[in-house]
Amino acid sequence: MELPPALERARHTHGYYGSVSHNTKAIYRRYLGWFDGNPAHLWEHPPVEAARRYVEFMGGAHEVLRRARQSFADGDFRWVAQVVDHVVFAEPDNAEARTLQSEALEQLGYGNENGTWRNFYLMGALELRHGSVGTPTDTASPDILAALTLDQLFDALAIRIDGPRSWDADIAVRWNVAGRDPVTLHLHNGVLRRLPATGPAAPAPDATFTLGEPTLRALLLGALPPADLAAQPDVTVTGDPTVLAALFGHLAAPDPDFAIITP
């Protein structure tokens, strides 16, 4: 994919943030899905298992690295990053592979005008040399959380559900909040859905909580334990209040410190 010449000549259309190749794939996958039409891509092995097979087929890690060092000397840093990635995933503790991969990523980062790509390249090199450094910023700052709507906070719970551990759970909790339409949270088949309480899809609730928005926010943000909600002065409960603790027991804590270049 190439920009029309008139746009390519305009400096302000260049890829300082994003790139044509990156954004084209993003649009394609957003509208057409992940499958590119090649049936060989329908059921690929996951990255670690595929990497072990690639390295074995290519003659082992030593042979891959020998050839990759020549590619590095030839300036083909893109290929080095691509092929040595298999060695890193097949043998995460291979120091030679990690060093060569980091050097290739560093060269790609230095030569890239796209700021986001450059940061990914250099961050990958840093991780290979020093291990995962985690997320240095606070992703749950009070200012950000205070700006979220209740619907967004409900949705944030949904993405934290431990699906396999919740496959057999069937819990429905209804929320009556002053000034808002009632909402039902239904955990079923490992998925937490937010439903209109009067809609046809909403099940009969196991418990109904009538309360003010500040109290509900305190609960959803973790400042108020689920077991203590029923005792709050502005809370009225109908049904079994213990189902709330059971519902929250199916949540998993997110880990923002995942590795980006190693398995």
State the CATH architecture of the largest domain.
Alpha Horseshoe
By DSSP, the count of extended strands is 5
Percent of sequence in beta strands: 5-15%
Distance between the termini: 31 Å
Give the biggest beta sheet. 5 strands, mixed
How many helical elements? 11
CA radius of gyration is 25 Å
**How many separate domains?**
2
Give the overall shape, derived from the CA principal axes: elongated
Using the coordinates above, name the CATH class of the largest domain.
Answer: Mainly Alpha
Order of strands in the sheet with most strands: 3-2-1-4-5
Structural classification = alpha+beta
Taken in chain order, the helices and strands follow as HHHHHHHHHEEEEHEH
Can you characterise this structure?
The chain is of the alpha+beta class and 263 residues long. The chain folds into 2 domains: 126 residues, Serine Threonine Protein Phosphatase 5, Tetratricopeptide repeat (Alpha Horseshoe), CATH 1.25.40.880; 107 residues, 2-Layer Sandwich (Nonspecific Lipid-transfer Protein, Chain A). The protein contains 11 helices and 5 strands. It has a 5-stranded mixed β-sheet. The protein is elongated, with a radius of gyration of 25 Å. The model has no long low-confidence stretch (mean pLDDT 92).
